[in-house]
UniProtKB/TrEMBL annotation:
Pfam families associated with the record: CofD (PF01933)
Biological source species: Demequina capsici
Molecular function terms from GO: LPPG:FO 2-phospho-L-lactate transferase activity; magnesium ion binding
Protein name: 2-phospho-L-lactate transferase
UniProt cross-references to PANTHER family, sorted A to Z: 2-PHOSPHO-L-LACTATE TRANSFERASE
Stored InterPro entries: CofD (IPR002882), CofD-like_dom_sf (IPR038136), FbiA/CofD (IPR010115)
């Protein structure tokens, strides 16, 4: 595989992409990552792009591995000042180094630079070993419909810890959005397309909702293989189960695959990796046109994560 495209959300996608890069080191593989931007928002006059930044920091090796998000060695002096002035959300803290990224990005955007170009310039600071592409240069923001009103995804996720029952997700701006330059071409040119084990509803879902991306996945000659973010009926980290419940999908590896659907049946997947504990689901998925394999899905150690990336490539190569 010389040319691999990954669809990614934030932290889960970042870990998978890093593992893929490291597993393929020295093989001359081109890795392009199409990253969800529907978690993005404006705050304190700055454009915040959580998933792009999670992938960037992780590939650059400047992420906080212990905490699971943000920059290593972070301080929060600026956020404390902003809170004292009543700017931004009191329950939402941005680190100082992280704010540096947001200021740099916003400065480029204010100069009329499209997000995709801003990402290319900002990520050139490090040797990431992968090219990051926002799914779109247009502003798309997921809002969550709850019994207590509709709110930005970040408010529902961070402030309410996804505890307010979600009635639905409104991916605002998606229907009018255009894929960022190179996104459709990347999918069409790829030798393999991999879905990272990212949140199916609010990370991969918004990418698929940008007109043109789903069509590119349907028509590419590359095999499309996904990795389940659900192991043994539970989320590995985070609160993706709340998102799945809201859209009527069981928190179950096979149910997520059925939600994506087989490419042979109008969906987006050819292959799907489930964990060993979900091996009993492989047969049922085959009857639906999805070739599933059961392999260890935990990305706890670097070695395990790289083996998972190799398993995804191997499944793609066998299709
Ligand atoms: P976010 O945007 O930061 O929420 O990150 P993503 O959407 O990219 O990934 C979140 C998903 O990653 C969660 O739903 C987790 O279930 C999944 N995840 C996290 N760690 C692992 C892991 O070690 N293995 C697998 N298979 N999934 C994981
Ligand atoms: Ca995210």
């Amino acid at each position: 595989m010389k040319d691999v495209v990954v669809l990614s959300g934030g932290v889960g996608g970042a870990r998978f992409t890093r593992a893929l890069r490291d597993a393929a080191a020295g093989q001359g593989m081109r890795i392009r990552v199409i990253v969800n931007t529907a978690d993005d928002m404006w705050m304190a006059g700055l454009r915040i792009c959580p998933d792009l930044d999670s992938v960037t920091y992780t590939l650059a090796g400047v992420n906080d591995e212990q905490r699971g998000w943000g920059r290593i060695g972070e301080t929060e002096r600026v956020s404390a000042e902003l809170h004292a002035w009543g700017i931004g959300w009191p329950w939402f803290t941005l680190g100082d180094l992280d704010l540096g990224m947001h200021i740099a990005r916003t400065s480029l955007l204010r100069d009329g630079v499209p997000l995709s170009e801003a990402v290319a310039r900002l990520t050139s600071r490090w040797d990431l070993g992968a090219e990051l592409m926002p799914m779109t240069d247009d502003e798309v923001e997921t809002h969550v419909v709850t019994g207590e009103g509709t709110m930005h995804f970040q408010e529902w996720w961070t402030r309410h810890r996804a505890k307010l029952p979600a009635l639905g997700f409104d991916i605002r701006g998606a229907a009018e959005a255009v894929p960022a330059p190179g996104v459709v071409e990347a999918v069409l040119e790829a030798d393999a397309v991999l879905f990272a084990p990212s949140n199916p509803v609010v990370s991969i879902g918004p990418i698929l909702s940008v007109p043109g991306i789903r069509e590119a996945l349907a028509s590419t000659s590359a095999p499309v293989v996904g990795v389940s973010p659900i192991i043994g009926g539970s989320v590995v980290r985070g609160m993706a189960d709340a998102c799945l419940t809201a859209v009527g999908t069981a928190t179950d590896a096979a149910a997520v695959a059925r939600r994506y659907g087989a490419r042979s049946d109008g969906g987006v997947l050819d292959g799907w990796l489930v964990d060993l504990v979900d091996a009993h689901e492989v047969g049922e998925l085959a009857t639906r046109g999805i070739t599933a394999r059961a392999v260890p899905l935990w990305m706890t150690e670097a070695e395990a994560a790289q083996r998972l990336a190799r398993d995804a490539l191997a499944l793609a190569g066998s299709l």
